[in-house]
Amino acid sequence: MKLLKNSFIHIFSVLLLLIIATFPLVIFNMGDRVAINFEGIFEEMKQFFSGLFTGSSFYYEQGDRIRSILTDISRYFKFSFFYLFWSSSIILLLSFILGIYFWRQSNKLLNNFLGFLGMIPDFIFISILQILVVIFYQKTGVRLAKVATPSTEDPAILLPLITLVLIPLIYIVRTLNERTQDVLREDYILTAISKGIKKRNIYLYHVTTNVTPFLKADLHKILAIMISNLFIVEYLFNTGGITALLFQHQMKFGYQYNLVIFCFFALFLLYVLLFFYLKMLILLVERILRHD
């Protein structure tokens, strides 16, 4: 029953995505009212699916040129995956360190400095980082990091990673802090303390294995935050990822339904790959600790 329910949700989500992607083509401003061409929704979807069999849906226009979506999207996908892969890995590592092992210290830090940073909108935070790097370079002649990506061969790495890591890290560390406090109040933890078991072993083998289920449950939220931040990061740092193909190309060459759909599915693939990657890492940590 659960499998059937999940399958229905996924099918409905895909269908809703296909419909939403048609809106720029079927919604018109008629002056005093907004008109929707409902027939156009089904027509666009019909052309897309028929194009999957004829092959026309796998190509898009770039000015006077016709290019292969699958060929080009792989290059954009690679850049987005690079930033999300490393930022998610850093988040997972720091969530264990700050959220579990040093939860007292990180709790104080989050309530002050990091908590303040978390309230700053992403585009303002990025601008502040870029300005500080430029000022530091002007004063010292030392370039701490690239403020943008001048070319695909010379990408900005440090600042985009910092931006992608910050907000999800604040969220997950705060959550794990609360769960760690709850676990430390449990009777079996108090019994372990009374028996004189070392604090390191209590945190490593008892607290961690009872907190990681909450971390796994929040993976969906973490990745949702990261991918939503990716839109701003890739635009302001000019990193040339999937969102550049999704938005900047549409503004320059016009809206193309098939290209948008493939970009959406590429973002979904990013989500799925990173979700299973992080979940496998957490399961590996749990397995090692429980069989140590």
Structure in words:
- The protein is mainly alpha-helical and 292 residues long.
- It folds into 2 domains: 54 residues, no CATH class; 214 residues, MetI-like fold (Orthogonal Bundle), CATH 1.10.3720.
- It contains 12 helices and 4 strands.
- A hairpin with a 2-residue loop joins strand 3 and strand 4.
- Its main location: membrane.
- This is Peptide/nickel transport system permease protein.
- It is a multi-pass membrane protein.
- It is found in: Cell membrane.
Label the overall shape: globular
The biggest sheet, with number of strands, parallel, antiparallel or mixed sense and barrel status, is:
2 strands, antiparallel
Q: Structural class of the secondary structure composition?
A: mainly alpha
**CATH-defined topology of the largest domain:** MetI-like fold
CATH class of the largest domain: Mainly Alpha
Q: What is the β-strand count?
A: 4
* Spatial ordering of strands, largest sheet: 1-2
Uncertain parts? none
